[in-house]
Design brief:
- The protein is an all-alpha fold.
- The protein is built from 9 helices and no strands.
- The chain has helices spanning 9-25, 27-37, 44-49, 52-57, 60-77, 86-106, 112-126, 129-133, 135-151.
């Protein structure tokens, strides 16, 4: 795992179980783990670890740090979203969906200046034709903008 960054299929469920169990005792570790292993934005473990209640009681500095981690993942994945075949970019679509979903959970906990900065970045992300036109990206983007609309 550490050499390639890939998670063997037989380890996925074990790591999801670990993230679920860590969500109470070590929430930061649980969030970082689920962000790393999740490949679906509606993953039940992701929903559990990043429940709105858990995020609401999370210290502000931690929500800011994790939001910035999500932004970094998004900005790293966006250029890799383009490719010659759908098969080659599916893993990047999955990572983007998870990062955008997680960011939509953290955005309400951010300081107004940081939330505005991320909002401006999100508008730039959406200007990417691959994001705007991809059917797999519609749901996470819609949820993200719905949360941002609550801030305005």
């Amino acid at each position: 795992i550490e050499v390639t960054g890939l998670i063997p299929a037989n380890c996925q469920s074990i790591l999801e179980l670990a993230a679920g169990n860590l969500s109470v005792l070590a929430p930061e570790l649980a969030v970082r783990l689920i962000l790393r292993i999740s490949n679906y934005d509606e993953n039940p473990t992701l929903t559990h670890v990043l429940s709105r209640t858990r995020v609401a009681v999370m210290p502000t500095y931690l929500a800011s740090t994790l939001a910035q981690t999500c932004v970094s993942v998004i900005e790293y994945a966006l250029p890799r979203f383009v490719g010659t075949g759908r098969q080659g970019i599916i893993s990047w679509i999955e990572r983007l969906r998870v990062a955008i979903e997680a960011l939509s959970r953290f955005i309400l906990r951010l300081e107004p200046d940081m939330a505005e900065e991320i909002f401006d970045k999100a508008l730039e992300w959406y200007r990417n034709d691959n994001i705007a036109q991809d059917i797999w990206m519609r749901q996470p983007i819609r949820r993200y903008y719905q949360v941002l609309a609550r801030l305005l």
